[in-house]
Write a structure and sequence with these properties.
Length: 326
């Protein structure tokens, strides 16, 4: 076949254009609003921090970042909803990592914590306060447990739900102290706090927050102990559970951003970088530290490692203490 100069140039141009066309990037991310699903009800520390985070991310990404609360099953409902969402980087979860590390060892979660979720960025760890309400007449945890042994079932202890970290802490204390305590499970922190303030039960496990610290300051709640590596700056006289002889119950909640498995790696990397940048801003750090929450900045790989390590630890705790889902 004979080629003219014009035909040759045309064919050459088409051949060069083909790889260029194939190399064209997909739609620019983000090109529409993002949604952060908070796995707990409005009003708790997770909701407050998620909304502050969303506001800062929106400014950095140039698109709205919406917050939607989907509470239930100690966070597993919201995380499971995200796990089944499109893996395009527009739907994220903000949750404690317990739906990935704790709930699967106590029952079916409705999703696979390894195959269906990709860790994006750790955000914070939050100490867990053991706090008395006006219904408790005993002065400290030791006397509370003495009463629980003397009057089985009389002491009511509220948590944010079955298979929550607070539930595991209660089971550890209940077993170690040989005390019969009634578990009062809630679906999250909001209603739990409302009922605590009206004395509907004697004790609650709750993550630290500015609101909780304010209730303690005004005397509406009384701290008995804290699950944390050390005593809190705002509550220096409150002992850790380890100090009181319950090291296995001395646990804190890690919170972070999660995405559906299959979310493009460049999107995960970008989100991780933006979240870590937000966590470095004075406004966010001050808000976290005021609530006695500690900022955590990790890579996705480091966050995945933290989740895996906690899952292994929780499996051991649940097996050794023979904890069952209620």
């Amino acid at each position: 076949m004979t080629f003219t100069r014009r035909k040759l140039l045309t064919l050459t141009g088409s051949a060069l254009a083909l790889p260029c066309a194939l190399a064209q990037p997909g739609p620019i991310w983000p090109s529409k609003p993002l949604k952060i699903v908070v796995a707990y009800p409005p009003g708790g520390v997770s909701d407050v921090i998620a909304r502050a985070l969303a506001e800062q991310l929106a400014s950095r990404l140039g698109v709205p970042v919406l917050v939607d609360n989907k509470a239930g099953a100690s966070g597993s409902l919201g995380v499971g909803w995200v796990a089944k969402s499109a893996a395009d980087g527009y739907t994220l979860a903000f949750s404690a990592i317990s739906p990935l590390t704790l709930s699967p060892h106590l029952g079916k979660s409705g999703f696979d914590p390894v195959k269906d979720i990709v860790p994006v960025a750790s955000v914070m760890y939050s100490p867990v306060l053991i706090t008395a309400t006006s219904a408790l007449k005993e002065g400290d945890l030791k006397r509370l447990l003495e009463t629980a042994r003397a009057r089985p079932g009389a002491m009511r202890w509220a948590t944010s739900g079955p298979a929550s970290l607070g539930h595991v802490m209660l089971e550890q204390i209940r077993a170690a102290a040989h005390a019969d305590i009634t578990h009062v499970p809630y679906k999250g922190g909001g209603q739990q706090i409302t009922d605590a303030l009206s004395g509907q039960f004697e004790v609650l496990s709750v993550n630290t927050s500015s609101a909780i610290l304010q209730h303690i300051k005004t005397g509406k709640l009384r701290p008995l102990a804290v699950g944390a590596p050390a005593r809190l700056n705002n509550l220096p006289t409150v002992p850790t559970l380890a100090e009181l002889g319950y090291p296995a119950a001395n646990l804190s909640s890690h919170f972070g951003i999660l995405a559906p498995a299959g979310t493009p790696a460049p999107v995960v990397t970008r989100l991780n970088g933006e979240i870590n940048a937000v966590l470095s801003t004075p406004a966010i750090r001050e808000r976290l530290l005021a609530a006695e929450c500690v900022p955590e900045q990790t890579s996705p790989t480091e966050f995945a490692g933290l989740i895996a390590a906690e899952s292994a630890g929780m499996a051991r705790i649940i097996r050794d203490a023979q904890i069952k889902a209620e």
